[in-house]
Design a protein that fits this description.
Elements (H helix, E strand, L loop, with lengths): L8 E4 L1 H8 L8 H15 L4 E5 L1 H12 L5 H10 L3 E4 L3 H14 L8 H12 L4 E3 L13 E2 L6
Parallel strand pairs: 1-2, 1-4, 2-3, 4-5
């Protein structure tokens, strides 16, 4: 990145945070857990800007409840305070586009969720350079370059 050039924009999903916050509750392989830590450190250092959707907080909260963990409010406050991360509200156009994306990608073999659609729709709406995820369903999308945390450089 040269002077005056803004850092790249990446869309990130809840799995990036959960791999670091509750690694024992994730299905992500060990290298993706480590990669998620590197991604969040790069975000904190301002090496890239990130965008996500408000569903991020719902997914993280659910994982904290499912795993009977405390500390969600601290995590939420820390994420909301991160200056390099912008969390978008779920608007009607975003919700409709997410449903269209789910319809495109969902099959019995590829259980692309509505939440997956929200992350992809968010990245597209914000013209992100890439999507960083541990979710195999999102890694298969074609509208936006998707990489796993271990592939992020």
């Amino acid at each position: 990145m040269s002077r005056g050039e803004s850092p790249p924009l990446a869309c990130i999903d809840a799995n990036i945070f959960l791999a670091v916050l509750i690694p024992e509750a994730t299905r992500a392989p060990k290298e993706e857990i480590g990669g998620s830590g590197r991604v969040l450190k790069a975000l904190e250092e301002g090496r890239f800007r990130a965008v996500s959707t408000a569903i991020l907080f719902g997914e993280i909260r659910y994982a904290y409840l499912r795993e009977n963990k405390s500390g969600f409010e601290i995590v939420r406050a820390a994420i909301e305070a991160e200056p390099s991360l912008r969390v978008l509200d779920i608007t009607v156009p975003l919700a409709v586009h997410a449903a269209e994306l789910r319809r495109k990608y969902y099959s019995k073999k590829n259980t692309f969720s509505y939440n997956d659609g929200l992350y992809l729709a968010t990245g597209l709406a914000e013209q992100a350079n890439l999507l960083i995820t541990t979710d195999p369903h999102l890694l298969r999308v074609t509208e936006l370059k998707a990489v796993s945390p271990s592939q992020y450089r």
